[in-house]
Amino acid sequence: MAEGSRAVYAFARDQGLPFSNVWSTVEKKRQVPIYAILFTSVVQLAFNSIYLGTVAGFLTIISIATEGFYVSYAIPLFARLLSRLTSSKDVSLPGPYSLGKFGLLLNLVGFLYLTFAVITFNLPTANPVDSENMNYTSAAVGVIMVIAAVTWLTTGYKHFTGPQVELEGRVVDAVEVVAGPGASEKIGEKAA
Fold first, then answer.
1. Are 10 and 82 contained in the same domain?
2. CB of 18 within 8 A of CB of 155?
3. Using one digit for the tens of pLDDT, what is the confidence trace for 167-186?
4. 17, 21, 127, 162: most buried, per Cβ within 10 A?
């Protein structure tokens, strides 16, 4: 619940959710986002209660969560593969750990595995398929995507600018760092 309420608060603070002004309110005395915590508690209670009604519904929620994690792991792998395969200049980002010459191959293997896993999470687990053992993950993900698209098209694109970070007392909404000799920074600031 702590992670969920922090995510709700952070998105609301950045105007990324409907009713952001409510979810981002911080209680003055305790300095905690009470409404974000309450909202997260109610949603978590509702999801946990699904198990009391139907096991298939509960398994759908678990599959959606797992699929979401896998998609979040696959996106950077795909971006990395795409940049390595389509860019004419060196796009390596050196860090404390490197896969070296095996990096491209291992990124491809990881991406293919995650793609396979995400697809299989949408398939039924028993044969013959009936309403009790049907996997409703693809339908539920479709509904979530429709809600996300409607939210983005109605209010999201107008208000959400991405995460805001406080850097040396300034609120920063975009940071671009160019590495190498004579590195330069481009910082877009907002009034604090």
1. yes
2. yes
3. 666 655 554 444 444 444 44
4. 17
